[in-house]
Amino acid sequence: MEKLYFIVGSQDLYGEECLKQVAADAAAMTEFLNGKLSDTIRIELLPTVETSDICFQDMKKVMDDDECVGVMTWMHTFSPAKMWIKGLQILRKPLLHLHTQANEKLPYAAIDMDFMNLNQSAHGDREYGYILARLGIAHEVAAGYYQHEDVIAKIRQFAQVAKAIHFSHNTLVATFGNNMRDVAVTDGNRLEAEIQYGWQIKYWGIGEIAKLAEEASEAEVDAKMDEYTSKYTMATDNVDSVRLQARYEVAFDKFIAQNHVTAFTDNFQDLFGLRQLPGIAAQNLMAKGIGFGPEGDYKISAFSAVLMKMAEGRQGATGFIEDYTYDLTPGQELELASHMLEVPASFAVNKPEIQVHPLGIGGKEDPARLVFDGVTGDAIQVTLVDMGDHFRIVCADIELVKQPETMPKLPVARIMFRHKPDFAIGTAAWCYAGGAHHSVVSTALTRRDIALFAKLTGTELITIGDDTTEADLDRI
Ligand code: MN
Question: What is the pLDDT of residues 194-212, one digit of tens each?
């Protein structure tokens, strides 16, 4: 499991007895937090920072350890912050400043100068906060007693975001074909995406999948069909079409394993050698955490994989959607989000049906796809766009709702939602912000998770929600 290193600050002025107590308290805190967070992260304590050299050695360990996704720091005593400069200058992993104490309550009757010298994070953490601000190091502060549930929740949230950032730097997007020919928002600077988020975006011809699909054995296709029929209801007589999708997924599985791919894109304008656009194949892969972007959208493909990683271990669904059409009944406005095919099965509120229908565009054979209604509840809609000289994340609070009436003639996944604070402001804000029509919807993640990701990756963030006003629209 991934780990956070915990580094506690002090100095060698206080004498051996005090430093022993610092180390003992730090060890007890580490043990306590490991007991609370073992489902998410492992915490390992490094030597107390008493000198600049120890700090540097600790940070070297943080940087050298591939299992380490970030670091948590706390000043038990005063710890002169010049000692931290050299170490912090080599730190390039997410940083949590835990502003806490070994003791919850102040021992009014017993407190003396020794106690105060030992327990002075109010003093030491401010000195440390100054040097972080002075060095311009992006970080999160969690303030409060470390045994309190709200503080533990903040450490867990930081760990999940740090794991997602670590994952981001190991993301490989296979783009099969290029972007859809004329679409703007799916394009951008791949090199900058790799520099800022670590996304390797590599091109392969879709012929690679066509070849692997051709080579797939009947037994491999049978095994994939067994997976489909165990998870989904077969609602078509056109089993050959479904078997072709199963064959494509076998091919993707092999390609993903051989090339250590974590996300992929395809493009219905570039399906040379494939008779159908991958439908169920993409939907089923997304439900397993593989990122996906249609129309060559490598950004949403990588971002969806990163956000699925962030949501790991939480209840709820996270995945790609495309904005499609509205119900504009006054006061009851709703959006229908879907895609031609590729909405992940993780959003299904009912057992998805496998259906086969024409695509309408692209001139290929009728593809098999999963048809279902979406889950309901509070969610976020989040996207990432390339503004030319920087990336921007747009994050909107939304409410997923049940569709008011059935849509028997619409054979795709159907996700419906309500905008916040209302339709007019919520959707206008998204348009002003340049938010893409491809996004990730999540009932597992919150705006705060995204804000933390944006802060720790140095990304501009525009949020939309109940606190957005009409006046804000002129300031986006
Ligand atoms: Mn699209």
Answer: 999 999 999 999 999 999 9
List, for residues 331-356, the tens digit of each pLDDT value: 999 999 987 778 899 999 999 999 99
State the distance from the centre of ligand 1 to the C-alpha of 438, rounded, in angstroms.
6
Distance CA 157, CA 43 (A): 14
194 C-alpha to center of ligand 1: Å?
23
Global pTM exceeds 0.70: yes
Residue 294 Cα to ligand 1 midpoint, Å, equals 6
Instruction: Point out which residues pair with 348 in neighbouring strands.
Output: 374
268 alpha carbon – ligand 1 mean position (Å): 11
Cα-to-centroid distance, 322 and ligand 1 (Å) = 6
Q: How far is the CA of 444 from the centre of ligand 1 (A)?
A: 23
Whole-number Å distance, alpha carbon 188 to ligand 1 midpoint, is 15
Residue 439: C-alpha distances to residues 127, 308, 318, 343, 380 (Å): 41, 13, 11, 11, 10
Query: What is the Å distance from ligand 1's center to 437 Cα?
Result: 6
Strand pairing category for 68-75 and 95-99: parallel
Query: Which letter does DSSP use for residue 436 in this model?
Result: -
Which SS3 state, helix, strand or coil, does residue 405 take?
coil
Residue 55 to residue 172: CA distance in whole angstroms: 33
Please, which residues bridge with residue 377 across strands?
400
